[in-house]
Design a protein that fits this description.
This protein is an alpha+beta fold. It contains nine helices and 26 strands.
């Protein structure tokens, strides 16, 4: 009798072990199927389109932190749901603007110039990964995919394109379960914030710690894996009153965005460049004269440099009272000397003559320049024969008819 019971138990244990193995094999097989890179990309795009943000978040490759949390991701995605008009024509707003009819996911071999025109952000993925290593040496764990979604909106078809990278989990468990994670350059953004020296920056309630000192008495803070959305920003400096405002980051297909926040703080040690210059002008022997603006939409700056903040926009013939004169000490300051079409953040942009830029690099026949517009900042390449350096050139400190004071480039006025 005892022997019979033992045999029965052995059979039950064997059956249970067989069931466990079968379930485990089935689970691994299902994970292998669900974890294929093409499948992960498809599920991620579908989740974004259906506004299932928690599901989309679970497929992103992120470093844990407050700004990269699930709660922040969902909150920022919902911000764009209610403010889609602010996001322009990004693929994020395009995905949620209609009913999904079809979705094509195509594997890419980098570099692949033939596919470049079809992939919305392939060039930016190339830029992002080539900064770490040459594309030919990218680990096999990385793969790249072009995505084309066809949506139906108001009876018309709309095509939305983007490019995503997928990284495989190379751990034993990751390989066993075929875990793959998405890198989306439009969603996981890199942001550079330039501020005055000795300035601390809080973004979204978190104090930033990674910065680089420049040669121009400024700091550049670097924030990686920042979701598009709106963030509270606070600048603090022991020599200034704190500045509080908001920073809005769009879902643009570019490797990084740069924001120049210099001039947001009112430095207590000198109050402002304008007041300092006005006090100096009272002590100098400079004779006050009248000047008239030549040209339209001429910027009046808060310091004698193209990187200064705009105080006012002046029009041709407007009378100004000249209070002081100073030479430009900014070695990076420059202006475009003629009308020019350039590549700016992935789009064509026409620059007018006297457009201020800041030189950040030099090539054989051109300069790499930073261009700061009211809506965005980025980099442009300007031929050397189309650019004029302003270092050492004269600027006038002037007062407008309504009492505003600031600096204007000497060649943009006629002195009487």
């Amino acid at each position: 009798m005892l022997q019979y019971i033992l045999q029965k138990k052995k059979k039950i244990i064997l059956v249970l072990m067989a069931l466990v193995v079968a379930v485990a094999c089935g689970f691994i097989g299902y994970s292998q199927y669900k974890g294929r890179p093409e499948r992960v990309v498809r599920d991620y795009i579908t989740a974004l389109q259906q506004k299932q943000y928690a599901r989309a978040y679970s497929q992103l490759l992120l470093t844990p932190g407050r700004l990269t949390s699930r709660e922040n991701f969902v909150r920022q995605m919902q911000f764009w749901d209610y403010n889609s008009e602010l996001d322009g024509e990004s693929y994020l707003s395009g995905l949620k603007g209609g009913e999904l009819k079809s979705l094509e996911v195509t594997a890419l071999e980098l570099p692949d110039k033939a596919q470049q025109a079809e992939a919305y952000s392939l060039a930016n993925l190339q830029q992002e990964f080539s900064a770490q290593q040459k594309l030919k040496g990218v680990r096999p764990a990385w793969s790249f995919y072009a995505v084309q979604a066809v949506l139906l909106a108001e009876g018309q078809e709309r095509r939305v394109r983007t490019t995503l990278a997928v990284q495989a989990d190379t751990s034993f468990l990751g390989r066993l379960l075929a875990r793959n994670y998405i890198v989306d350059p439009c969603i996981s953004r890199t942001v550079l914030l330039e501020v005055e020296d000795n300035t601390k920056v809080e973004l979204g309630g978190e104090e930033l710690t990674h910065y680089q000192q420049t040669n121009y008495n400024t700091l550049i803070y670097r924030v990686e894996q920042l979701f598009p959305g709106r963030y509270a920003i606070r600048l603090s400096n022991p020599l200034a009153d704190a500045y509080e405002g908001n920073l809005r980051l769009s879902a643009a297909a570019q490797a990084s965005s740069r924001f120049n926040l210099c001039g947001r703080l009112q430095l207590l040690k000198k109050n402002s460049e304008s007041i300092e210059a006005e006090e100096r002008s009272k002590k100098s022997a400079f004779a006050e004269r009248t000047a008239y603006v030549k040209g339209y939409d001429v910027f009046l700056k808060d310091r004698p440099s193209t990187s200064g903040q705009i105080v006012a926009v002046l029009q041709s013939g407007e009378a100004l009272q000249v209070l002081d004169k100073r030479d430009c000490e900014d070695k990076q300051a420059a202006v475009v000397t003629d009308k020019l079409t350039v590549e700016f953040n992935g789009e064509k942009l026409r620059l007018e003559a006297w457009q201020p830029v800041k030189i950040v690099g030099e090539q054989e026949e051109s300069f790499l320049c930073r261009l700061d517009l009211e809506s965005s900042s980025g980099f442009v390449t300007v031929p050397k024969d189309k650019l004029r350096r302003l270092w050492g050139s004269s600027w006038y400190f002037v007062r407008t008819a309504d009492g505003r004071q600031g600096w204007i480039f000497s060649e943009l006025v006629n002195i009487k």
